Amino acid sequence: MKVINLGENDSVLNSFMAEMRDIAIQKDSLRFRTNLERLGEIFAYEISRRLDYIGKDVTTPLGIATVRTPVTRLVLATILRAGLPLHRGLQNYFDHAETGFVATYRKYGKGDYFEIKVDYCICPDLIGKTLVLADSMIATGSSIKVAYDELLKEGGEPEQVHLVTPIASAYAVDHLQMTMPDNVTLWTAAIDEELTSRSLIIPGLGDAGDLAFGGKL
What we know:
Layout: E1 2-5, H1 13-21, H2 29-48, E2 53-60, E3 63-70, E4 74-80, H3 84-93, E5 98-108, E6 114-122, E7 130-134, E8 137-138, H4 142-155, E9 160-169, H5 170-179, E10 184-192, E11 194-195, E12 201-202, H6 208-213
Parallel strand pairs: 1-10, 4-5, 4-7, 7-9, 8-9, 9-10
Antiparallel strand pairs: 2-3, 5-6, 11-12
C-alpha cells in the first residue's frame, strides 16, 4: 500500500485542517462540515491526477477543441455517518461516479476491548473499476479494513483502491500497510502519532460524527 500525506506540503488544505482541529472553531458544525467537504474536493483533485485519460473532441461555437478527459470508472464509497461531508466533496468533482455506503461501529466489551460491527452495506459492481473509500478518521485501521472487505464481498475486486481520510494514526498506517494489497493508496492530510487506551487519535480532533451532526444518544 502506498501512503500520500498531502499535509506534508504547504497548501490551503492545512488551513482547513487547523480549523477542524481548533476546539473553538469546531463548535460551529456547519463550518466543520464545510471544511470536511473542502478536503474531499482537494483529495478528489489529487486523485484525479492518477486516473486514465483520453482525448475527446468537443464542439464549441467556433470550432472543435480536443480535451483530455478521464475514462476511469469510479465508485465512491463512504463509511456512515461521519464520512458524509467528505463524500460530498469527492462527489462534487467526481459527479459521474457510482456510489456505495457502509455503516460500521465499535462494539465495546470489557475494558477498552472492541470489535467492529457492520450494520449495512450497499455497493455496485466493482470489477474493472476504481474504488474511492472515504472515512473522517482512521484510528486503528480496523473499521476501514472491515468496510473494504464488505464492499469487495458485495461488488467484487476493483482494479485500484484509494482510501481517503483527513487524519490517520501512525498505528493505522502500519496496520493497513501490512493488511492491504499493493493496488491500494492511502490519502491523508495528517498522520498523528498517538492513540489513547480506547484507540482515539491524539491530538486528533474529537468525534468527527458528533462534530458534524450532533451527539449520539
